Amino acid sequence: MIKRLFDCVREYKKYVFFTLFFIIAEVVIECFLPFITSKVINKLEANIVDMSYIIKIGFILVLMAVLSLGCGAIAALTCAKASAGFAKNLRHDIFTTVQTYSFENIDKFSSSSLVTRMTSDVANVQMSFMMIIRIAIRAPLMLVFSVVMAYIMGGKLAGSFVVLIPILAVGLLIVARNAMPAFRRVFKKYDKLNESIEENVRAARVVKGFSREEYEKKKFAVAADDIQNDFTKAERIVAFNSPLMQFCVYFNMIFVMLVGSKLAISSGGSIINVGEMSAMLTYGMQILINLMMLSMIYVMITMSLESMKRIYEVLSEKTALSNPEKPIYNVADGSVEFDNVNFKYSSKAKRSSLSDVNIKIESGMTVGVIGGTGSGKSSFVQLIPRLYDVTEGSVRVGGVDVREYDIDTLRNAVSVVLQKNLLFSGTIKENLRWGNENATDEELREACVLAQADDFVQSFPDGYDTKIEQGGTNVSGGQKQRLCIARALLKKPKILILDDSTSAVDTRTDALIRAGFKQYIPETTKIIIAQRIASVQDADLIIVMENGKVSDVGKHAELLTRSEIYREVYEQQTHGGEDNE
Amino acid sequence: MSKQSAKSQANGRPPMRKMNFKVLSRVLKLLFKSYPVLIPIVMVCIISSSLVSAIPSIFTQKVMAVITKYLDSGNMSWASAKEEIFPLIAILIGLYIFSLIFITVQTQLLAIITHGFLGKMRKKMFEGMQNLPIKYFDTNKHGDIMSYYTNDIDTLRQLVSQSLPSLMQASIIVTTVLFIMLYYSILMTLIILLGVVCMFFVSAKFGGGSAKYFIRQQKSIGKTEGYVQEMMNGQKVIKVFSREEQVKKDFDEINNELCADSTKAHAFANILGPVIMNIGNVLYVVCITMGGLFLVTNFPNVSLSGLPFTIDIVIPFLNMTKQFTGNVNQVSQQINSIIMAMAGAERVFSLMDQTPEVDEGYVTLVNVEIAEDGTIKETDKHTGKWAWRHPHGDGTLTYTELKGDVRLHNVDFEYEENKSVLHDVTVYAEPGQKVAFVGATGAGKTTITNLINRFYDIADGKIRYDGINVNKIKKSDLRRSLGIVLQETNLFTGTVMENIRYGKLDASDEECIKAAVLAGADDFITRLPEGYNTMLSNNGSNLSQGQRQLIAIARAAVADPPVMIMDEATSSIDTRTEAIVQRGMDKLMEGRTVFVIAHRLSTVKNSDVIMVLDHGRIIERGNHEKLIAEKGTYYQLYTGAFELE
């Protein structure tokens, strides 16, 4: 998993290396600084220095500081570049992967979960990546360096680290071990709390309508208190880091003072002197701080592990549909044939959404599909452009199994207007051009005339340049549906499928659209799912569906006499009307 | 929020640039109020532990002085040196023990305070929000409201748990160290101060820069989020039109922008640390060089202590320089989060400061017993009978039986000034009647129901409930007497049973099931894997829209209100299922005053009165037969010549 994610660093690898290089350089300089200064201190102490020496050393030291600043600054820049670039590539990969998803994959992830993965989760990973490349190399390096220097300078004095490092390491590990699961629990609860707030905001009308404000407040207070307690507990575990760390620092101080002064005095300064003692204090501090840093990284990595898992889930999801090896790039005609088709949305589903479907539709036919909610109408048509693959049997378009076509070719030949109509933010023109990138304005208009959309589009002050807001909220449901039909027509498909796409359109306009289809696109096979009998009664073939099965097929008149379901729906819809006509 | 940004723009400054001290002081005040005892304790701990961590350098220096003395004199007797060094170290150990205690207490208490404070703020925000009028929810994006609870509150956590304590600690240490330094040598201190000024200047510059770019980054994230949201929602359409490549290209553009902003923001933030630390290093070097020079040249020392300039002063000075720069660095690292926290706090306060819904109603709903002669007596018992308790100005009290008679007289209403939504609307709904509203989107159907339950207040005219002006009725009681089922069904996380019980919190399981049966929901609920105990989450995403509507109807039914408002309540139930639940619905509506809004005319056909609305006016009224006979708009709608919406 980690490997797959870190592959996303790609072109930013060089920045990672730059960062590492400059950080190493910075660390080396930083470590030599106390080494040199301790020499100066000793010379000062021994009174064997002169002006020129001090100025010379001072110059070198300033130069080192400037160098270290340069390295640090460059590392800061390259590190920001590398981590932001890494995040960019992650987002790019997630987005690109999602684009390869089939409908089956899309059903698996909710759109809001995909959004969080691309935003918060990526941000988490970016942060910890940055920390890692900045600190993960720096901290151990400093650690090793400081320990080595401490031994060189302090000899026996460095013994205190032998005691301290294990104590600190074990202590920090215990804290991290205990804190992490606590935090993970808290974050989960926290997410839940936020979900419930969101639920409440969305349902404000319900809450107020039932006068449940006080009830909601109480409910929330309980949840908030619960989180507060858990959060406090987790944080209190982590809070032990600080005294532990301080204890080690203090211990080191006392040890160096006590043992150091004894060594210094009894050896007359030959084993250790004042300068070396002060350097020991500095190194001691450095060692402990770096240990602390390492434990922080450990916490950060484990925290972002959750995010990494969630990102990886998206990246590793294999598309359920792929192009065949030798795809066919030409769809002969608009005939459709279902041959013993069985279909389940997922292999785990108990019930088949479609079973034993056998249908033959000739090119150019108009076919109506009628049936209740959950009868399998949508599943039926979605198999034709291979939005899903059949579980058993086969679907043939133009006499060829849909799985043998190039997917784009097939979908360009089969145009579906989905039940959940969606327009995107942008102008009407831009939305229509989804159907055909290169359509001329004239072609756009033609499609709209056919979909009975031209009139109302023209009535807008900006006409075809009218901006559609996100989700298409500024056009009515019926208008949206007609625009979606126009968009689908622009593909000039061999098969046009309308999945309950005229439900909000009035019957007269609905009839005009169907008449237009008959007149202007007679070659195109038209498959129309509808709730209204009126929308399908003139069709060449009407398919009545029930519980995932084809209950009956035939023309309007036949079905009225033969199919009970059809008759029931028909009577219910025309009952009132006939009374009054 | 929009109001707030408008305000800051009016002041001519972009939001989130400067420190807002008003907000800071309000945060501090709230913090103190929440923990009036613990906070002073923590402060004492911080002060003590900071002092304790500054003082030891004096003792270190003293120990060093002893060693130097012995080394200089050639005395190698540890026994005699011991006498001088041990007491010093004993004091040091004592100080350290104190310090450890202080630190432990401080960090533990801080954890408690931080989350206690956040919990309190959360509750306060939520309670405030519950009291807001529906208008607030209608005019603010839900995502924006949510971000108060997530992003903005999070910035406060950082502030309380880290920024404030470390700011306090750092300033105490810096002051203490400053005095110690002055005690030793004024001249050397001045040199260090010069460096510190330099650091402050730099951190203000970089800190400000990084805050600026972080805000930009935030905006870019918002843009990316918006785009991704739209595309992920429309993913199936993208597939159907094979638009993957185009969409990828567009996304990359936005993504690159975000990357650029993010790089800048983090570059500024990252660079701050090394810059400050290296100014510190230079300072260190300058100190050592100057110290050396002073020593060599026997420069006269000016200090509070009057000590001569020796190596024993230079060494602690060097350590103090480190301490100084370390602390300044710590403060500078907090600048960003403090600026962010202030912006977050400002937004949190803006939610808390929203004017709550006012309720001047004084007529309340009470349980009553109605005697045979019609006299009404108030009681505490659940009698199933309700009445309006109406205190009058002259001190008398009258009771009016709750019947469900709703009348609108010449009502005018507008959401925004001069944008009339309803005009001269008069509706009489007698107890038990079914009144339907029909009309295009925006004709004002839903608005009428919003006025009856006083989600919004009318501009002109009168609404009477059982003869009482609704303005006199306490809002919660008024709403209790009205059941609403909305088109957009909102269910809560919990079991089906709990969701139904939402309508009447003390309803027994039997009552809930009875309501479900009445609503025609029992059938599908019992077929769910765990029946009434099936958990719903994510607004009941495991149910179909139609099933959700049925639960919502059951929820309203269990409340058993005399008046019900059904706003497109059955729109997502297909016609066949609707026909099946119709009988249940009819039974549910029996004996109640019902307002029905429906797009599907079959739902409203059997109403006692149908009102056809157009642009906020009632253009036709009457029952189905009458309206059909009139051959007006209703007739055209009914025959399908017009499209609704």
Can you tell me about this structure?
The complex is a heterodimer of chains A (581) and B (645). Helices cover 64% and strands 10% of the residues of chain A. In chain A, helix 6 (159-202) runs antiparallel to helix 9. Chain A has helices at 2-6, 13-45, 51-100, 103-108, 111-154, 159-202, 204-209, 213-239, 241-266, 274-316, 377-382, 407-413, 428-432, 441-450, 454-459, 477-489, 507-520, 556-562, 564-580; strands at 336-343, 354-361, 366-371, 392-397, 400-401, 414-417, 426-427, 467-468, 495-499, 525-529, 541-546, 549-554. Chain B has 645 residues and is of the alpha/beta class. Chain B contains 21 helices and 16 strands. Chain B has helices at 2-10, 21-34, 38-54, 56-73, 78-130, 134-139, 142-184, 186-233, 235-240, 244-297, 311-352, 445-452, 475-480, 496-501, 509-519, 522-527, 545-559, 575-589, 601-604, 624-630, 633-638; strands spanning 364-370, 376-378, 386-391, 397-401, 406-414, 420-429, 434-439, 460-465, 468-469, 482-485, 494-495, 535-536, 563-567, 593-597, 609-614, 617-622. Chain B has a six-stranded mixed beta sheet, with helices on both faces. In chain B, strands 2-1-3-4 form a four-stranded antiparallel beta sheet, with no helix packed on it. Chain B has a four-stranded antiparallel beta sheet with strand order 6-5-8-9, with helices on one face. In chain B, strand 15 and strand 16 (617-622) form a beta hairpin. The longest helix of chain B is centred in the middle third of the chain and has 54 residues, at 244-297. Chain B is elongated, with a radius of gyration of 37 Å. Mean pLDDT of chain B is 82; it is low at 1-17. At the A-B interface, helix 2, helix 3, helix 5, helix 6 and helix 7 of A face helix 4, helix 5, helix 7, helix 8 and helix 9 of B.
